[in-house]
Design goal:
about 5% helix, 1 helix, mainly beta, about 675 residues, 7-stranded mixed β-sheet
């Protein structure tokens, strides 16, 4: 039993150790390799996969992922990829169903084409990786381009641009531009293929425009057919010409997107010769779009030779960009002509007081006609100096807090310039583009809930003159946590005393050690405004009648504002008085009974908590009676006339207005008799 236990334990320990060793040796492959990358995947379409040097599993890769020595890359059917080498800038376009290995040969980077086809383009030639296919090594020169295919142990190659060297075990071969052929043990046989003169492999073609296919190297009188398809496996004949000369041409419109094509020579319907398989891409070519300056723009300047920054949008995959500036719209008197491989902006020094016209032309690979933008006009205007406005507020490094007391936002202010009628306010928030706003005021308010700190300055101008910009000032913006108001719940508060107490409360905020409450009278005496420092998020205030503005700020222990409320407007006003009741009697003069009694009855008044009856006798004075009912029995009235009115009373005991006046007549002869004295006893 013990022996069996020891065997099981040994197997378990061995399994754990083996698993751990495997994990340590392979874990790095699941993340970023520790090796230095030498290339990256510049573009991908559909399925492009990578296999690391010490792994057996393929994994999908996407645009931008790095590649290393020993990596294998492959494309699936109807899939394409583009590999760019970092140091040399060489770009390798992988066609569908292609497999390559990135190798290091004699201390230099190389690319081994196992199967499929690729298109390689070198810009500088310096440090370009060798391309190995079978036993042949292809070396790209500066500005050269090469199409290579490896199928069934056969290597096909076509030099699309420049020249390429091939080194085999037996000889060195030098190929010039346009060379096409098959590589074998006997050397490079250019007669094996139809030589393609145009278009070049991987050429960018204008969608829908006719492609001029040109060739040479076939015998006279045969038929030449064009095969085309979206993949290497879907090539179909789409056009043909008969009885051709040794060199010839045919045209066919370029389809949209990437496609493959090949020319085939036919004699009595039998294929006797073919060209290499090539790839093309049909795109909608568009003219450059002019960005700045806009058409008919006028620039004010104090300089005799102003400098202007021109910018435009370059279309996709342009080969050349040409900028033209002239003093006339027909460009007969050119001012400047400049060409680049790829550029979208340029600074130019101009002469003043002249209109200028400019345009940009994009050029693709031949034979396409260049696409030229529309013509745009701009001019300069020489200005005199106006006095420079001086920045007032904010001071340098002033801190703005959004929605502190002013809901209009940040306020920038400067001194007026008498000679000017307008101003340019320039503000640049951190991390954003500069903004220039024109205004006829000397105060500008900027309301942006996402604003950050930045810089600002101002300039004065009129129709013909302008000042220099004022000194640039810096400001900061604090975005504090929002504080919500809890009391009062209504923005219109009624009160019943001359100086009412208003209860204020707001949401507590974590981290706040001190609250500062600001209050300001919007209608009454400004001296009533002020602030209170509080340790809790509530306080009562005794205030005058009127409209009040409140705001509260929260500070942490270091004195930094971390919480802020929105402004709160509250209107304090007297409560509405309750109207008086009306007596049921229709007459104004009421007749009391002989016993000095009278029963009053009146209507019920909404919101009334009670009623007050006031009677005034010319000799006896006032008499008041309060009741919560809508009727009352008057008793012990002395003879004579009383004036009577009623008032309603609310829950706080405040009386409303007086009702219309009534009169009560009490008869002179009353039923009330004086007591009789029976006897008087004197001791």
């Amino acid at each position: 039993m013990i022996k069996r236990f020891l065997v099981i334990l040994s197997i378990s320990i061995f399994g754990f150790v083996a698993t751990r060793i495997w994990y340590v040796r392979t874990a790095k492959d699941f993340g970023e390799p520790e090796r230095e990358s030498i290339a990256y995947l510049k573009a991908d379409q559909n399925v492009v996969e990578q296999k690391l040097v010490d792994r057996l599993v393929w994994k999908d890769i996407r645009k931008g992922q790095p590649l290393y020595h020993g990596d294998t890359v492959r494309t699936a059917s109807k899939s394409e990829g583009e590999v760019a080498f970092l140091k040399s800038g060489v770009e390798i376009f992988l066609h569908e169903n292609t497999i390559i290995i990135i190798e290091e040969l004699f201390g230099e980077s190389s690319l081994n084409l196992l199967s499929g086809s690729l298109f390689a383009h070198s810009v500088t030639g310096a440090g370009a990786p060798k391309i190995r296919a079978g036993e042949a090594h292809f070396s790209l020169k500066e500005g050269s381009a090469l199409n290579v295919a490896a199928h069934d142990d056969k290597i096909h190659a076509a030099v699309a641009k420049g020249n390429v060297s091939i080194k085999t075990k037996t000889e060195d071969i030098h190929l010039e531009e346009g060379a096409t052929g098959k590589l074998s043990k006997e050397g490079f046989d250019q007669r094996a293929f139809i030589k393609i003169l145009h278009p070049r492999p991987n050429a960018l073609l204008e969608k829908g425009s006719p492609i001029a296919f040109a060739w040479e190297g076939i015998k006279e009188g045969v038929e030449v057919a064009l095969r085309m398809g979206s993949s290497l496996k879907t090539l179909n004949r789409v056009a043909s010409v008969k009885d051709t000369m040794p060199s010839g041409t045919m045209t066919f419109p370029a389809p949209e997107g990437s496609f493959y094509w090949q020319l085939v020579a036919l004699e009595q319907g039998k294929e006797i010769r073919e060209s290499m398989l090539f790839r093309g891409e049909g795109v909608a070519l568009s003219a450059p779009e002019l960005f700045y300056p806009s058409d008919n723009a006028v620039f004010d300047s104090f300089e005799t030779k102003p400098r202007l920054h021109l910018s435009w949008k370059v279309p996709h995959r342009t080969q050349k960009v040409k900028l033209e500036i002239a003093e006339d719209a027909a460009f007969k008197t050119p001012f400047l002509t400049q060409e680049w491989d790829h550029r979208s902006e340029f600074n130019v020094l101009f002469d003043q007081n002249k209109p200028y016209f400019w345009r940009v032309t994009a050029v693709w690979e031949a034979p396409f006609i260049p696409k030229t933008s529309s013509v745009s006009r701009f001019s300069f205007r020489h200005l005199k100096n106006l006095p420079t406005p001086q920045a007032l507020l904010p001071d340098n490094d002033r801190i703005f807090v959004f929605q502190r007391l002013d809901p209009k936002g940040l306020a920038f202010e400067w001194t007026p310039v008498r000679e000017a009628d307008r101003y340019r306010f320039k503000v640049k928030f951190d991390g954003e583009k500069e903004q220039v706003i024109e205004t006829n005021k000397t105060v500008f308010r900027f309301k942006d809930p996402n604003a950050k700190g930045g810089t600002w300055s101002v300039q004065a101008f009129d129709e013909f003159n302008v000042s220099t910009w004022s000194e640039q000032r810096r400001f900061s913006v604090i975005h504090a946590a929002d504080v919500e108001w809890l009391k009062p719940k209504q923005k219109q508060v009624e009160y019943f005393t001359p100086k009412p107490q208003l209860d204020l409360a707001w949401t507590p905020t974590q981290g706040v050690a001190l609250w500062v409450l600001h209050y300001k009278s919007e209608e009454g005496d400004i001296s009533q405004s002020g602030k209170r420092t509080l340790s809790q998020a509530e306080t009562p205030l005794v205030l005058e009648e009127g409209l009040w503005r409140f705001a509260v700020e929260g500070f942490d222990e270091q004195g930094t504002m971390i919480a802020l409320s929105k402004p709160l407007l509250v209107k304090l006003e007297p409560s509405a008085l309750i109207p008086p009741p009306q007596l049921d009697e229709q007459t104004r003069v009421l007749q009391a009974k002989r016993d000095g009694t009278y029963f009053l009855r009146w209507n019920s008044v909404t919101r009334a908590a009670g009623y007050e009856i006031e009677m005034v006798h010319t000799d006896l004075g006032k008499r008041k009676v309060s009741t919560q009912k809508t009727s009352h029995q008057l008793e012990s009235l002395m003879p004579g006339r009383y004036s009577l009115n009623l008032r309603s009373k609310n829950v706080n005991g405040v009386l409303g207005p007086v009702s219309e006046e009534y009169a009560i007549d009490v008869p002179d002869v009353s039923d009330i008799q004086a007591p009789e004295i029976e006897r008087i006893v004197i001791k």
